[in-house]
Each structure stands twice: as C-alpha cells, then as structure tokens.
Amino acid sequence: MDLGLEGLRVLITAGASGIGLHTARAFAAEGARVHICDIDEAAISAFRADNPDIGASLCDVADRDQVQALFDTALESLGGLDCLINNAGISGATAPVEQMDPADWDRCIAVTLTSQFNCTRLAVEPLKASANPSIINLSSAAGKFGFQFRSAYSAAKWGIVGFTKTIARELGPFGIRCNTILPGLVEGDRLTRVIAAKADALGKTYSEAETDFLAHASIKEMIDPRQLADMMLFLASPRGRTISGQAISIDADLQTLA
Ligand code: NAD
C-alpha cells in the first residue's frame, strides 16, 4: 500500500532508542523527512552515526527553553512540519503512593505529560500551514486502567487521553487531527525493567511477574514496536485524514494491568 508519505515532515520526541527509534526508521523508510530529539547524548551520537539522513537534537522535552531550541532547529531543517509525534515518556518510580518521592512524581508528570503540551503549543502554527497535519501522542494501557505502584505514570497517561481529545476538538477546525496510541506490553529493554521493578515490589520472581502481565491479555503476546510504527504511519498519512480524537489501544486486548 502506498501511504503517500514521501516528503512528510515529521518530528519525533525521544527518538534515539525504543519505540521512537523504530518509528523514526519506519517514517524514513517511507520517504518522510524526519527529525528526532533525545535527552541521552550517547544515544544521540549513536543515532547520528547509524541514521545520517535523519536530523537529531539533544533535548530534554520537560525543559521549555530546550524545546523552543529543538523547534527552531527542526522547523528550519525540515522546512515546516506535517506531523508531531509526542513519544517521550518515562516510567517514573514504582512505589506505593504514600512512599513516592514527590520529586519522582513531578519529574514523571513533567516528562510524560507536560512535555506533550511543551511541544504541541509550538507545533500548532506550523501545522496550520501543512496540507496534511497531524499530532500523535503516546499514552499507554496505563492510560485506561489503574496501575498499582505507578500512580504518577498512570495519571500522566490518563492525562494524555484527555489532552488529546481536547486538542482534537480545538485543532480540528484547522484540519489538524490528533490521536493517541495506548500500547500494551511492548518488547524491549523498558518492559524488561518494568517487569523487574514490579517483581521486586511484589516479592515475586521475574518470570512470575511476566506471567502476571500476560495473564490479562486475550492474545498472549508482547507488542512488536513496529506494529506501533505501522499505526502511526497510517494515522499520519492522507488515508488517515478523518481519524481524530481517538484513543487507539494496541495491547493484545489487555483487560487490566497486573
Ligand atoms: P524508553 O524508555 O525505551 O526511552 C526511549 C527514549 O526516551 C530514550 O532514548 C531516552 O533517552 C528518551 N528520553 C527519556 N527522557 C527524555 C526526555 N526528558 N527528553 C527527551 N528524551 C527522553 O521508552 P519506550 O519504551 O520507547 O517508550 C516510548 C513511549 O511509549 C513512552 O511514552 C512510553 O511511556 C510509551 N509506552 C511504552 C511501553 C513499553 O512497553 N515500552 C508501553 C506503553 C507505552
């Protein structure tokens, strides 16, 4: 299927590894022009070496001055913007709410939720000038279920759903569609860390905690990050032009989080 993504100008936050990296490569493979940012200097260097055709900036998306500098660089290098992918998000602390360090709460909300506001507010004007504008926000299955010991992360991910549905209504009249993706258990280093932390918090083995996670999915399989990228390609393509305001789960039909 030709998705018509040749030349699409895409900015992806936290793109030097994980889901963002798979997504950046998937858009570039379709002929899109891509710029990523990341907070990890070593990861940015490795990314630049491996992906010389994709722009990359060092940026903490929780810092508004750094986000302004990112947009200055990315908009100039891309020559405008057609698609913003707010992908950055951190797991935050795994702890009962009364034991959670307030600094951990603040940082998780800042990186996972407020970063999407930081980027979106600067994306709106350039997107209004695009013929095919869209915003895709990464939420999580933690944005539709309670997730014990992960109150900051879950609150941020529920917040993203509300943020997305609201900006979809505000920006729809300008033709800008806004959607959020709620991934379930995605293969990769991050999930390994999350399962290990949950095992520790509950006094279980890693394998017991992993079985607990999958027990609540109708399809007993982790999500391949390329499936998330495929959905984002479609949403950003002209074929997705009437899909907006949607919270789309890609989670093997999870019924709850362990
Ligand atoms: P990850 O933990 O692998 O991190 C990806 C990148 O984010 C890293 O390169 C890291 O340096 C960068 N990063 C961290 N803080 C940043 C900041 N302040 N500014 C800029 N970059 C920063 O993440 P991932 O697993 O690829 O997840 C991507 C998104 O998908 C997140 O929003 C996450 O919450 C969401 N998600 C992931 C899963 C999963 O199982 N992996 C499940 C549901 C939702």
TrEMBL record:
Protein family (similarity comment): Belongs to the short-chain dehydrogenases/reductases (SDR) family.
Protein name: SDR family oxidoreductase
Pfam families: adh_short_C2
GO biological process: monocarboxylic acid metabolic process
SUPFAM superfamilies recorded: NAD(P)-binding Rossmann-fold domains (SSF51735)
Xref: PANTHER family: 3-OXOACYL-(ACYL-CARRIER-PROTEIN) REDUCTASE, 3-OXOACYL-[ACYL-CARRIER-PROTEIN] REDUCTASE FABG
Residue stretches in coiled coil: none
Organism: Roseibium aggregatum
Domain of life: Bacteria
